[in-house]
Write a structure and sequence with these properties.
With 639 residues, the chain is mainly beta. 13% of the residues lie in helices and 48% in strands. The chain is built from 9 helices and 31 strands. The strands form 4 sheets. The chain has a 25-stranded mixed sheet that branches. It has a two-stranded parallel sheet with strand order 1-2. A two-stranded antiparallel ribbon has the order 6-7. A hairpin with a 4-residue loop joins strand 25 and strand 26. It is globular and about 75 Å long.
C-alpha cells in the first residue's frame, strides 16, 4: 500500500505544486470564503489571530478529529468525513498532496487548507531557547502608519476635543518556533491620542506582550503576559474569532476548545494579563489562569458613603480626550480560574471550566430600564461543564454554565452529514435573564449571552463541485428588557445563498437575507412604549474573475429595504475591485458608489488588510469611495 501511495504522491506533487504557494497565506481571500454576515461588527484582528494560530500550530491529519477540522471553518461536514474515512481505510497520510484523491475536495479548497495542516505526528522541539531563536519558523514585524485626510470635529474642539494628532501608529513583533516557544510585542497609538514621554505618558498609548513555552515535559503550555482562553462552546471562556450567522451555515455554530493562546491583538479589552499554565498528557490536561488587568471606567462618588463606584467598563480603548484619559486604567480586574479537558477516546471530549473575577471598584449600572439585568457588584463566579461526542457522521456538542447567584446558560447542538452532499446543523441556545459572562461568547443573536433563547438550523447542499446552496433559519426570543426593548419580544432571521463556480477562476454569488427584529418606539404622548417588528430585506450579487498574471476582478452589487410601522427606507451600494498579487506583494483597489437613507440600511466597505484593528467603514450617506491598499510580506533573518 505504501509503495502505491508513494507513486501516486509523486504525480500529485507535480500537479499541485505548479499552482500552490504554501508559504504565503492570503488572509483576505480566506476572509471572503468564511462569508460572515456583511452587516455585522467584526474585529478582523481576532480573525487574523485565529488563522495565524493554526498556521503556527497546524493540525496533524494523522491525529486530528472532526471537531478540530471543523474549527478551521474551511470544510463541510461531509468533506471532513471523507478525510477521516480515507485515513481509516488507507492508513496515515504520507503527504498533504494525498488530499487530491479524496472526493469532494477540489484544488482551490486544498490550497486554502495547506497552510493549516501537516502530516507530522509530533512537534519538533528544540531544547535550547537560543537554538530555537536562531531556527525560528516565524519572524514577523509590522510597522503601520496612517493618517486621515479629513479633519474630524474632535480636532477642532479646543475645550473638550482630541489632545493628540491625527496620526495612528502600530508596531508588532512576533518570533516563534511552532510548538516550542513564542515571543510577541505590540505597541499602538490611535488617531487623536497623544504620543510622547511625559509624566503620565510613556510613548504609545497601548502596550501588550507575551512569552510562551510549550512541550517542556509535563508542562505543555506556559504563557507569561497577555493571553486569551477558549474552552467548550464559549460560555465561560469564549476568546477568538467567530464568523456568526452568514453563508457558512453549518460549521459556524460550533466552537472548539483551544485552551490558552497568546494575545497580540490591538483590541484593548477582553483578554487576561498574567500567567497561564497547562500540565498533563494527551488525554488529560489541567490549566490554571491568573490575571490582573487595569481597565477603563469613569469613577463616580457616592456622597452618602464617601465611596467611589463605576457604572460600567469602557471598552473602546480610545484615550483622545481629557475625559477618556481620566478614565484610563482607573479600575483593576483580578481573575483566577482554570479548566480540565479530558479525551478518553478520539470521539469523546469532556471538560469543565471555572472563573472568579473581582473588581477594585463596585459596579452599579445606571438606573435605566434596559440595564435592569446588568451585572451589579464587585465579584463574580462562573463555572461550566462541556462535551463533544462524534458518532459516525454526527457531532453532538454542548455546554452548561451556572453563576454564583444561580443563573444559568446553555448551548447544545448537532452537526450531521445526512448524505455526502447534505450537511445539517441544529443549535439550541438559552441564557437566563441575569446570566452574565464577562469573557464568554457563545452562539446566539446577541454577543453578551444574556436574556435570550432560540432555535437555529442551517443546511448546506453541494450537489457537485460547481454548485452550492446554503440556507439557515433562526428564531430568537428575549424574555425581559434590553437595549431598545422594553418588554418580552421575539424575532426571526433567515438566509439563502447560491454559489456557482463553473471554473476555478470564476465564482458567482446570489444571496438573500431577511430579518425581523423587535424594536420599542415611543408614542406621541411620550408615555406609552410599543414593541414593533422592524423588517429588513437584504440582497447581494457578486461576480469574481481570476485573470491571468495575478489579477483578480470582482464586481459586487447589494441593496436593502427596511420597514418599521409605515416608514420604508432603502440603501444601495455597487463596488468594483481590481486586485493584483505578484509573489509577496499585493495591491488592492476599489471604487464604490453608494446611497442610503439611514443607519438601518448602512453598508460596510469590506476590509483589505486583516492586520487592522478597525472594522469596515460604515456607509451611512451617499457618494463615491476610492481605496488603494498595498501590502508586502518579507522574511526577517536574525544572527
Amino acid at each position: 500500500m505504501n509503495r502505491w501511495k508513494l507513486s501516486l504522491l509523486f504525480l500529485l506533487f507535480i500537479r499541485l505544486s505548479a499552482h500552490a504557494q504554501i508559504s504565503l497565506i492570503d488572509y483576505d481571500h480566506l476572509l471572503a470564503n468564511l462569508s460572515m454576515n456583511e452587516d455585522s461588527e467584526v474585529t478582523y484582528d481576532h480573525l487574523y489571530q485565529t488563522l495565524n494560530y493554526y498556521s503556527d500550530h497546524p493540525l496533524s491529519l494523522n491525529l486530528t478529529d472532526k471537531a478540530e477540522l471543523m474549527s478551521l471553518r474551511l470544510l463541510t461536514s461531509a468533506q471532513i468525513d471523507d478525510i477521516l474515512v480515507y485515513r481509516a481505510q488507507y492508513g496515515p497520510f504520507l503527504s498533504l498532496f494525498e488530499l487530491q484523491v479524496i472526493p469532494n475536495l477540489d484544488e482551490q479548497r486544498i490550497n486554502q487548507l495547506l497552510p493549516f495542516l501537516t502530516v507530522s505526528n509530533a512537534p519538533k522541539i528544540n531544547n535550547s531557547l537560543i537554538s530555537s531563536l536562531k531556527n525560528s519558523t516565524e519572524r514577523f514585524l509590522l510597522i503601520r502608519h496612517g493618517q486621515s485626510l479629513q479633519v474630524a470635529d474632535g480636532y477642532r474642539d479646543t475645550t473638550a476635543g482630541y489632545i493628540g494628532n491625527r496620526t495612528n501608529l502600530l508596531v508588532k513583533v512576533r518570533i516563534s518556533n511552532g510548538n516550542d516557544y513564542g515571543i510577541g510585542f505590540t505597541a499602538e497609538k490611535d488617531s487623536g491620542e497623544p504620543f510622547g514621554w511625559q509624566k503620565n505618558q510613556k510613548g504609545f498609548d497601548y502596550y501588550s506582550g507575551y512569552l510562551r513555552l510549550q512541550n517542556k515535559g509535563i508542562l505543555t503550555n506556559l504563557i507569561l503576559g497577555d493571553y486569551q482562553v477558549q474552552t467548550g462552546q464559549g460560555l465561560v471562556y469564549g476568546a477568538g474569532y467567530y464568523p456568526g450567522k452568514g453563508r457558512e451555515t453549518v460549521t459556524a455554530s460550533y466552537r472548539n476548545s483551544l485552551g490558552a493562546r497568546p494575545y497580540h491583538s490591538v483590541a484593548e479589552t477582553g483578554f487576561f494579563r498574567g500567567l497561564s499554565a497547562t500540565i498533563g498528557k494527551s488525554s488529560l490536561n489541567v490549566s490554571i489562569y491568573a490575571s490582573g488587568l487595569a481597565e477603563d471606567a469613569q469613577l463616580n462618588l457616592d456622597s452618602t458613603r464617601s465611596e467611589t463606584y463605576v457604572n460600567s467598563l469602557q471598552t473602546s480603548g480610545l484615550h483622545r480626550t481629557s475625559k477618556q484619559i481620566q478614565a484610563k486604567n482607573s479600575i483593576k480586574t483580578y481573575s483566577f480560574g482554570g479548566s480540565i479537558h479530558y479525551q478518553p477516546k478520539r470521539a469523546i471530549k469532556l471538560g469543565a471550566s471555572y472563573l472568579y473575577t473581582q473588581y477594585s471598584q463596585i459596579i452599579l449600572p445606571l438606573n435605566t430600564t434596559y440595564q435592569l439585568n446588568a451585572f451589579s457588584g464587585d465579584r463574580h463566579q462562573l463555572g461550566s461543564i462541556y462535551f463533544d461526542w462524534n458518532i459516525q457522521n454526527f457531532l453532538v456538542f454542548g455546554e452548561g454554565a451556572l453563576t454564583m447567584s444561580g443563573n444559568g446558560g446553555l448551548v447544545t447542538g448537532l452537526i450531521a452529514s445526512l448524505t455526502p452532499k447534505i450537511d445539517l446543523s441544529l443549535v439550541y441556545p438559552k441564557y437566563g435573564e441575569h446570566f452574565n459572562s464577562f469573557y464568554g461568547h457563545g452562539f446566539g443573536e446577541n454577543s453578551n449571552n444574556t436574556n435570550e433563547q432560540g432555535a437555529y438550523w442551517g443546511l448546506k447542499f453541494t450537489p457537485n463541485k460547481k454548485n452550492k446552496l446554503s440556507v439557515y433559519y433562526d428564531y430568537f426570543r428575549f424574555e425581559s428588557f434590553q437595549y431598545q426593548l422594553y418588554g418580552p419580544s421575539d424575532g426571526i432571521e433567515y438566509l439563502g445563498a447560491y454559489e456557482f463556480t463553473p471554473t476555478s477562476a470564476v465564482r458567482f454569488l446570489l444571496q438573500y437575507r431577511y430579518e425581523q427584529k423587535p424594536l420599542s418606539i415611543t408614542q406621541l404622548d411620550q408615555k406609552l412604549r410599543t414593541v414593533i417588528q422592524r423588517k429588513k430585506h437584504n440582497y447581494r450579487i457578486s461576480i469574481q474573475k481570476n485573470i491571468n498574471n495575478g489579477f483578480v476582478l470582482k464586481t459586487t452589487v447589494q441593496w436593502s429595504t427596511t420597514a418599521q410601522s409605515s416608514i420604508k427606507k432603502t440603501g444601495f451600494a455597487a463596488m468594483q475591485d481590481l486586485n493584483f498579487q505578484y509573489q509577496k506583494m499585493k495591491i488592492s483597489t476599489r471604487i464604490a458608489l453608494f446611497e442610503t437613507d439611514d443607519y438601518g440600511n448602512m453598508r460596510m466597505n469590506e476590509m483589505f488588510a486583516l492586520v487592522s484593528k478597525y472594522p469596515p467603514t460604515k456607509i451611512t450617506v451617499s457618494g463615491p469611495i476610492y481605496s488603494l491598499h498595498t501590502r508586502s510580506t518579507e522574511t526577517l533573518h536574525f544572527g
